[in-house]
Design a protein that fits this description.
Length: 263
């Protein structure tokens, strides 16, 4: 009996160990596939938005896991106007997804994405721009901002992805040095306007921060909840992302004020 136990116990432990390793490998491959699919899609969209851009490639992507061709994303490069933007990129992006409302770019970071707005704030948590289910989701505006980028206060959400994509680098603004050295946030709207916001503050908070419940049409009321807001600011942009760690409700908020808008 003792001999039987001596042989069985190590065998069970070996099988258990191999099972754990297989599950871990399966999880890692699945996560890489998620990253790879999202990266491929958003690089294609960048080519549509501005063919001159260099594709952003995030590290640790599996070369042998590739997204099936998506006919809706296969657009030939179009003629560019003097600004370097494609003449019809807005229409091309809107034809892929009618929820498209603009594009966000933060110089000095890899934040360079289309912005959408769904009927509620759950639509794009796990849905790519194309409509495909994916944990990376999309950069989206709070559904309560009924005036879009014309609203006095706009809130944009994006995931803090482990591969550094989406809004992962937004949390860097928690370091005041980044705000001092690289404060600009550029929004290109779906009606041809370029909005330049300047980040002025950031804070580590949680999902119940009072900022999430402010009236997006009342900038004066917002000043009371965002004390550092410049007195002359007429429009604000707030970026929100989750923070890594045990606390799933931890959030990072970045506040920016409009400093320029050009048609």
């Amino acid at each position: 009996m003792r001999l039987y136990k001596t042989r069985v116990v190590p065998a069970v432990l070996t099988i258990l160990g191999l099972t754990i390793i297989i599950i871990a490998l399966w999880y890692q491959l699945g996560r890489r596939a998620v990253y790879d699919i999202a990266s491929d899609e958003y690089n294609r969209l960048r080519d549509i938005q501005s063919p001159k851009r260099v594709a952003v490639v995030f590290p640790s992507h599996s070369e042998d896991i590739r997204r099936p061709d998506n006919a809706a994303l296969d657009h030939e490069p179009e003629e560019r106007d003097g600004s370097g933007q494609t003449a019809n990129h807005v229409n091309a992006l809107a034809s892929i997804n009618p929820d498209y409302i603009g594009w966000i770019k933060i110089p000095g970071t890899v934040v360079d994405y289309p912005v959408v707005q769904g009927v509620d704030n759950g639509v794009y948590l796990n849905t790519l721009f194309s409509g495909e289910t994916n944990a990376a989701g999309a950069i989206f505006m709070d559904a309560r901002c009924e005036e879009g980028f014309d609203a006095p206060i706009c809130v944009l959400y994006g995931h803090n992805m482990k591969d550094g994509s989406m809004f992962a680098q937004v949390k860097r603004f928690l370091d005041k040095k980044l705000i001092e050295d690289n404060p600009d946030i550029i929004i290109s709207t779906d009606h041809g306007e370029e909005l330049i916001y300047q980040a002025y503050a950031a804070r580590r908070t949680d999902a119940w921060d009072e900022v999430y419940s402010i009236d997006f049409t009342d900038i004066e009321a917002a000043r009371e909840r965002i004390p550092e807001t410049p007195k002359g600011a007429s429009r604000l942009l707030i970026l929100s992302t989750c923070l890594s760690g045990a606390d799933k409700d931890a959030r990072a908020l970045v506040f920016a004020a409009l400093i320029s808008n050009e048609e």
